[in-house]
Specification:
single chain, alpha+beta, Beta-galactosidase, Chain A, domain 5, 8-stranded antiparallel beta sheet, 5-stranded antiparallel beta sheet, 17 helices
C-alpha cells in the first residue's frame, strides 16, 4: 500500500469530502458483513421506447457492423490492441487480456487490490471487455439482420457475465463508472433485441438480471462519485442509472433512482461544461465521451416522457458546436489531455471510430450548423435519434465556426480552408482539485498542414501498470512547449493526481478570425514554484497569406535557468536536419522549420531510458516518432524564435 499517495490524495480533499469518504468506508464494511440486501425491485416492466423501423440497411455502416458481428462469433474482439476471445459462451471475465493475470472472482470487491498489477494485471484491460460493447454490437447486428446467431451469443454472454459476477464479488464491482456503462449496455441490448422472442425471458422475467439491475442501481445510488472524484465518472454513473431506471420501470424504487439520477445530471452538465461549450476536464476525448452520454440521457428522457430541462439541452448544444469546431479535416480530433477511446454506446463497428457516430447523432438530435464538418451516416444515429422526437437545443448558436474558446483557454489560428491550423492550449490545468486527466502541457500546440498532422500531442498510451510511461506521456517534455529547470510545469503526485496546477492567461490577441495576420500571446506561471520564479511567455504569429508561422518564447525569471524546447512530429512525417533548419516531407506536402540558434538541437526517436520520442495512436498502443529537442539556458529578456513555412520543403527528407 502506498501511504504517501493516500496522504497526497487526502490533501486535495475538502473536509466534507473526507467525511463522505469515511461514510463510504463504513457502508462498504457493512456490505461486507452481509448488510447489502434491500427490498427487491419487485415486478418491473420494460417501458423503454421501441426502435423505429429501419429505412435502409444496405449501407457501408451496416456491412461493417455485420462483418464485425461475424468476427465476434469467431472470437475476434479487439480491446486496446489485444484480443478478448468472444467465441466461448462463457468468456473469462476476470483475466487481464494483456498479461494473462487473473483476479479472484470471489473476493469482496472493495478488497480487490486493483492498483497492484502483479495480482490483478492492468485493470483497464480487465474492465474494458465487461463494458459489454461487443454485446451491443451483436444486438445491433440482430436488429439489422434478424440473424438468431447474434441474439443468442449476446444472450449467452450476458448470462455468463451475470453468473460470474454476483453483486459485490470481484473486480467488476468496485468502480462506479463501470457499473454505469454496463447499465447502458443492458438497456440498449434489451432495446436492440426487442423483436427477439426470448428477450423478455432474458431480462424482465429473469431473476439473475433483476438481481444485477438492482445491484448496479443501488450501488450507484449510494456510492456515486463526489467531491474531487466528481468528473466524467459521475456523469457516466448517473447516465447509466437514469437510462436503466427509466427504461425498466414499474416500481417506486425505479422512480426514485431515475429522479436521483436526473437531478445529478442536470447539475453536472452545467458544472462540468465551460460556458463556451468545452468540457472542463480539458481532455478532448472525454469531451466526446460526456457528450455521448448526455445525448443518450436526453434521448431516453424524451422517448419515455421524462424530459430533461431546456438548460440541459442548451449545454449539449454548446458541447456539440464546440465538438464540431474542434474537429479537423477528416474529423481528426485534438489530443489535449487524457483519452482512453471511450464510447458511451457502441452500435457501429469499432473501426468507424467514435467521432463520426457522435457528430452524426448530435446533428440529427440537435441540428447541425452550416459550418459543421460532414459526418458519415452511422447506425447509432439512425437508431437512436428518432427516439428524441423533434426536440432541439435552442437557436443561440454561432453562425460561423468559432476559433476562440476563452473559458477553456483554447485558441485556433487557422486559415478558412484549414490549409494551416494551430490549436493552442492556454487554459486551466484540469478539473477539480486533482485535475486527474490533465497533462503538463500549458502553451503547447498542435499544428496541421492541409489536413496532415505535423506537430502533435503524443496522446495518452496508458493509465495504470506502467508508471514510467504514464509519467512521460503526461510530462511537459512530451508536449510542444518549453520545459524549465528540468521539471514539469506541474508536479505529478500520482497517475491521476497533480499537487500543483499552473495558471495560464492571454496577454494579447488580434486578427484571430480575420483573413490577415493573426497574433496570440499567452503565458503561464507553473515554474514560479522554482527558485528562479520563472514565468513562460509565448507569442504565435500566423501570416495566413504566406502560410508562415512564427513562435517566440521568452521568460521572466530571477536567474538564468536551463531549458528544453520540444517539437514532436507525427510518425508519418519524414525529417532531415540541416544545422538549424529542419526539412519535413509527407505524402502530399512539405514544410521547413528554422529553429532558434541559441539552443543546441538534437533529434530523438523511440528512446526508452528515459522515454522520449513516442506517439500513442490509441489507448494501449505506442509507436516511435521523431521529436526535436533544443537544450540551453535562458535569462529574462532572451527570446527564442521558431519559424515554420508551409510548402517550402523539398525531396530527400528521411526518417533518419
Amino acid at each position: 500500500m502506498d501511504f504517501g499517495w493516500y496522504l497526497r490524495r487526502l490533501r486535495r480533499m475538502s473536509v466534507a469530502e473526507v467525511g463522505w469518504r469515511a461514510r463510504t468506508a463504513l457502508i462498504q464494511q457493512a456490505w461486507r458483513l452481509g448488510r447489502w440486501r434491500a427490498p427487491p425491485l419487485g415486478t418491473i416492466a420494460w417501458s423503454g421506447a421501441a426502435l423505429p423501423a429501419l429505412d435502409k440497411v444496405d449501407t457501408p455502416a451496416a456491412r461493417r457492423l455485420l462483418a464485425c458481428a461475424e468476427d465476434i462469433l469467431a472470437g475476434r474482439w479487439r480491446v486496446f490492441g489485444h484480443n478478448f476471445d468472444t467465441s466461448p459462451e462463457n468468456p473469462d471475465w476476470h483475466r487481464d487480456i494483456r498479461s494473462g493475470i487473473r483476479s479472484d472472482p470471489a473476493q469482496y470487491c472493495f478488497a480487490v487490490p486493483y492498483r497492484d498489477p502483479a495480482r490483478v494485471g492492468t485493470v483497464k484491460y480487465v474492465w474494458e471487455p465487461s463494458r459489454l460493447h461487443h454485446v451491443t454490437v451483436l444486438a445491433a447486428a440482430y436488429r439489422l439482420s434478424g440473424d438468431e446467431r447474434f441474439a443468442q451469443r449476446a444472450a449467452a454472454h450476458l448470462k455468463s457475465w451475470w453468473r460470474a459476477n454476483p453483486p459485490l464479488r470481484g473486480i467488476h464491482w468496485l468502480s462506479g463508472i463501470e457499473l454505469g456503462m454496463r447499465l447502458i449496455a443492458f438497456t440498449w441490448t434489451r432495446r436492440l433485441l426487442g423483436g427477439w422472442p426470448g428477450v423478455a425471458a432474458l431480462f424482465e422475467r429473469n431473476p439473475d438480471f433483476l438481481l444485477q439491475l438492482e445491484g448496479h442501481e443501488r450501488w450507484i445510488a449510494v456510492l456515486h462519485s463526489r467531491g474531487s472524484s466528481a468528473n466524467n465518472h459521475l456523469i457516466a454513473e448517473a447516465a447509466g442509472l437514469f437510462i436503466a431506471a427509466t427504461a425498466f420501470s414499474g416500481t417506486p424504487q425505479q422512480e426514485s433512482f431515475a429522479a436521483l439520477a436526473a437531478g445529478i445530471l442536470e447539475q453536472e452538465a452545467l458544472n462540468q461544461t465551460f460556458p463556451d461549450g468545452l468540457n472542463r476536464e480539458l481532455a478532448f476525448g472525454y469531451h466526446g465521451y460526456v457528450l455521448g452520454l448526455l445525448l443518450l440521457v436526453a434521448i431516453e428522457g424524451e422517448a419515455n416522457d421524462r424530459p430533461l430541462s431546456d438548460d440541459f439541452w442548451h449545454v449539449m448544444t454548446r458541447m456539440a458546436d464546440a465538438l464540431a469546431a474542434n474537429l479537423g479535416p477528416g474529423l481528426q480530433p485534438p489530443r489535449q489531455g487524457d483519452g482512453d477511446d471511450a464510447f458511451a454506446l457502441l452500435v457501429d463497428a469499432p473501426e468507424t471510430g467514435p467521432w463520426a457516430p457522435l457528430l452524426d447523432l448530435a446533428a440529427r438530435v440537435l441540428g447541425a450548423r452550416d459550418w459543421w464538418p460532414q459526418a458519415e451516416r452511422c447506425l447509432l444515429a439512425g437508431m437512436a435519434a428518432p427516439l428524441a422526437g423533434n426536440r432541439r437545443g435552442g437557436d443561440l448558436r454561432p453562425a460561423k465556426r468559432p476559433d476562440r474558446f476563452e473559458d477553456a483557454g483554447v485558441t485556433f489560428l487557422r486559415t478558412a480552408d484549414d490549409a494551416i491550423s494551430i490549436r493552442v492550449d492556454h487554459g486551466p490545468h484540469g478539473f477539480l482539485a486533482t485535475a486527474a486527466h490533465g497533462h503538463a502541457d500549458a502553451l503547447s500546440f498542435e499544428l496541421s498542414l492541409g489536413g496532415q498532422a505535423v506537430l502533435i500531442d503524443p496522446g495518452t498510451y496508458c493509465y495504470q501498470g506502467e508508471p514510467e510511461w504514464r509519467r512521460y506521456f503526461r510530462s511537459t517534455r512530451a508536449h510542444n512547449t518549453l520545459e524549465i529547470g528540468g521539471a514539469d510545469q506541474a508536479v505529478q503526485a500520482g497517475p491521476f493526481l497533480w499537487s500543483t496546477q499552473p495558471t495560464s492567461w492571454v496577454e494579447s490577441a488580434s486578427g484571430i478570425e480575420g483573413d490577415g495576420a493573426a497574433e496570440l500571446t499567452v503565458a503561464h506561471d507553473g515554474y514560479r514554484r522554482l527558485e528562479a520564479k520563472a514565468t513562460h511567455f509565448r507569442r504565435f504569429l500566423l501570416d495566413k497569406e504566406k502560410r508562415a508561422l512564427t513562435v517566440t518564447d521568452w521568460i521572466e525569471a530571477a536567474a538564468t535557468v536551463p531549458v528544453r524546447l520540444a517539437y514532436h512530429l507525427h510518425p508519418s512525417v519524414a525529417v532531415r536536419i540541416e544545422e538549424q533548419r529542419v526539412v519535413l516531407n509527407w505524402t502530399d506536402g512539405s514544410a521547413v522549420i528554422d529553429l532558434p540558434r541559441q539552443l543546441s538541437w538534437s533529434l530523438h526517436r523511440g528512446e526508452e531510458r528515459p522515454p522520449l520520442g513516442w506517439f500513442s495512436p490509441e489507448f494501449g498502443e505506442k509507436m516511435p516518432s521523431h521529436v526535436l529537442i533544443g537544450s540551453g539556458e535562458m535569462s529574462s529578456g532572451d527570446r527564442l524564435e521558431t519559424r515554420l513555412l508551409s510548402g517550402a520543403g523539398g525531396a530527400g527528407a528521411s526518417h533518419a
